[in-house]
Specification:
By secondary structure, the chain is of the alpha+beta class. It has two domains: about 160 residues, Ribosomal Protein S5, domain 2; about 120 residues, GHMP kinase, C-terminal domain (Alpha-Beta Plaits, 2-Layer Sandwich). Strands 1, 2, 3, 4, 5 and 6 form a six-stranded mixed β-sheet that branches. Strands 8-9-7-10 form a four-stranded antiparallel β-sheet, with helices on both faces. A hairpin with a 5-residue loop joins β1 and β2.
């Protein structure tokens, strides 16, 4: 095997409830995680040393060395697996950074999958990627699992969700980075109940929209305090024809609109009343593969 390429899809929180706070300071959540057809791409190929390189529209913004989650993830995998040959990891960075859509976690997870396949590791028995990935971040296990799921605890306790429809999704970011800790710190008020329904009937876009209308993203108010443009994005999405639901993902600042189909999301991207500097991407809910 000379080269392995793995898609690193955008992760969105269709809803996100903050349900409590642990003694160690981490918040507990109840959220429905889904993935889209759009994302970054990770390639791994043989090399005498471990090298990480990047290209794409957001490559220049990536941190270097151990501050880069891809580097930490591949090093953690190498350490767990023992003496393994190195690799050249190439990241095509298309997802904005610090955007609330799990770009760094998706890249780390995809890098672990790519490297483990390049090195022919036995991920079914000897190498447990989920155990290796948990210390890297709350979203990494979900991105390794690569299936729509309800997440609880700090986001790492996963239960597979019912089948989701092939809905259209329009991702919009106002060009502002938001750090997750700062958004949680700015949040005020109490906690929400856990409303996960693993048996919910949400296999069509209307059913999914109705399901989500009874839920929210509890971090939206805090994100708007730090970045008022989030409110502008939500307003623009909500007033775009065909949008069934507008919501912020994660800790922001990326928001998404839910549409009946990817084609409807493409049309909405063209119709969106927004400044030119806003990043937008039409896509759809998808089940990621490792091919």
């Amino acid at each position: 095997m000379t080269r392995v390429t793995v898609h690193a899809p955008v992760k969105i929180n269709l809803y996100l409830h903050v349900t409590g706070r642990r003694e160690d300071g981490y918040h507990e959540v109840d959220t429905l995680i889904a993935f889209t057809g759009f994302g970054d791409e990770i390639s791994a190929e043989p090399s005498d040393t471990l090298r990480i390189s990047a290209n794409g529209p957001f490559a220049d913004e990536l941190p270097q060395g151990e501050d880069n989650l891809v580097t930490r993830a591949v090093n953690a995998l190498r350490h767990d697996a023992g003496e393994i040959t190195s690799a050249h990891i190439t990241l095509s960075k298309r997802i904005p950074l610090a955007a609330g859509v799990g770009g760094g976690s998706a890249d780390a997870a995809a890098a672990m999958w790519a490297a483990s396949r390049l090195w022919r590791l036995d991920t079914g028995k000897k190498v447990d990627l989920l155990t290796i990935g948990k210390p890297l971040g709350a979203d990494v296990p979900a991105c390794l699992y690569r299936r729509p799921s309800f997440a609880s605890g700090i986001g790492q306790d996963l239960i597979a969700s019912p089948t989701l429809p092939e809905a259209g999704v329009l991702l919009v970011n106002p060009g502002v980075k938001l750090s997750t800790p700062s958004v949680f710190k700015a949040r005020t008020g109490g906690f929400s109940p856990n409303t996960a329904e693993p048996d919910a009937d949400i296999d069509t876009v209307p059913k999914l929209a109705r399901f989500l209308e009874d839920r929210a993203n509890d971090l939206t108010g805090a994100a708007i305090k730090l970045c008022p443009a989030v409110e502008d994005v939500l307003y623009a999405l909500d007033h775009t024809p065909g949008c069934r639901l507008a919501r912020m993902s994660g800790s922001g600042a990326t928001c998404f609109g839910l549409f009946d189909s990817p084609a409807a999301a493409e049309k909405a991207a063209a119709d969106l009343d927004a400044p030119d500097h806003w990043w937008r991407q039409a896509t759809g809910l998808a089940m990621p593969s490792l091919v």
